[in-house]
């Protein structure tokens, strides 16, 4: 079973009715060939799930009758933000974004570092593509919260933004600390920062260390940037 997405403005609970349009309409009507009478599960990306029956398939939208509503299914207790350094290969960045959503992140912040090759903000077309990746990964993994892709920040901007956060982790290949992550249970928020292909500079790591980031390693083997992000997310989010 897969969840599908429609924004909250397409949902009319008082009338037991909702609409699927745009990307998800094409996916259900043109690719999956759904028919009237089929049962589908729709999320608004805000932790609400609607069990629905398709009542009408038009040229540009699917109309559904709401039969049942549930809330907050399959979401982790940890509110995790992945700070993902920009990668030279955009396909690898997209792969990391997709898997991060599947594993349960709440938000993703693209980060520019000293060794980041491209230091440009994403174009509108790129962000539209990323949104489709997020929606698809959310539905495939049966999540009911749509993670937020935030604006790109420099490392200094990120460090300032996270100044008061209690649980901040950065992966650094030359760290000797492979112990389990330590969390302050007074906060459910966790910030995880991963580097680009060239890693972090010593100066960057010192800045983060001075700002109380946990400088962690995943072990002696050197992992690709996207693999390191997925491995760390799995350790934190999968119980």
What does this structure look like?
The structure is a single chain. The chain folds into two domains: 3-71, Hypothetical PUA domain-like, domain 1 (Ribosomal Protein L25, Chain P, Beta Barrel); 79-237, 3-Layer(aba) Sandwich (Alpha/beta knot), CATH 3.40.1280. The protein is 29% helix and 28% strand. It has helices at residues 22-31, 90-103, 124-140, 155-161, 202-210, 225-237; strands spanning 3-5, 11-12, 17-21, 39-43, 48-57, 61-71, 79-85, 107-112, 148-149, 153-154, 168-171, 189-194, 214-216. It has 239 residues and is of the alpha/beta class. A hairpin with a 4-residue loop joins strand 4 and strand 5. The protein has six helices and 13 strands. Helix 2 (90-103) runs parallel beside helix 3 (124-140) and helix 2 runs parallel beside helix 6 (225-237). The radius of gyration is 20 Å and the shape is elongated.
Secondary structure topology:
Elements: E1 3-5, E2 11-12, E3 17-21, H1 22-31, E4 39-43, E5 48-57, E6 61-71, E7 79-85, H2 90-103, E8 107-112, H3 124-140, E9 148-149, E10 153-154, H4 155-161, E11 168-171, E12 189-194, H5 202-210, E13 214-216, H6 225-237
Parallel strand pairs: 1-4, 7-8, 7-12, 8-9, 8-10, 11-12, 11-13
Antiparallel strand pairs: 2-3, 3-6, 4-5, 5-6
């Amino acid at each position: 079973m897969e969840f599908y997405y429609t924004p909250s403005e397409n949902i009319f609970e008082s009338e037991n009715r909702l609409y699927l349009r745009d990307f998800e309409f094409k996916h259900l009507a043109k690719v999956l060939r759904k028919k009237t009478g089929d049962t589908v599960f729709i999320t608004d990306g805000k932790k609400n799930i609607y069990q629905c029956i398709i009542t009408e398939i038009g040229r540009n939208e699917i109309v559904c009758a709401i039969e049942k509503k549930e809330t907050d299914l399959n979401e982790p207790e940890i509110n995790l933000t992945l700070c993902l350094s920009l990668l030279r290969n955009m396909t690898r960045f997209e792969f990391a974004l997709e898997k991060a959503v599947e594993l349960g992140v709440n938000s993703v912040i693209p980060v520019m570092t000293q060794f980041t090759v491209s230091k440009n903000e994403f174009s509108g077309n790129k962000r539209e593509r990323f949104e489709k990746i997020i929606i698809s990964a959310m539905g495939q993994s049966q999540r009911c919260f749509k993670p937020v892709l935030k604006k790109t920040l420099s490392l200094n901007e990120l460090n300032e933004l996270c100044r008061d956060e209690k649980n901040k982790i950065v992966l650094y290949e030359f760290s000797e600390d492979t112990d389990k992550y330590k969390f302050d249970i007074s906060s459910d928020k966790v910030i995880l920062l991963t580097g680009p292909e060239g890693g972090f500079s010593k100066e960057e790591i010192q800045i983060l260390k001075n700002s109380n980031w946990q400088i962690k390693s995943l072990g002696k083997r050197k992992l690709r940037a996207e693999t390191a992000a997925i491995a760390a997310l799995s350790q934190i989010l999968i119980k």
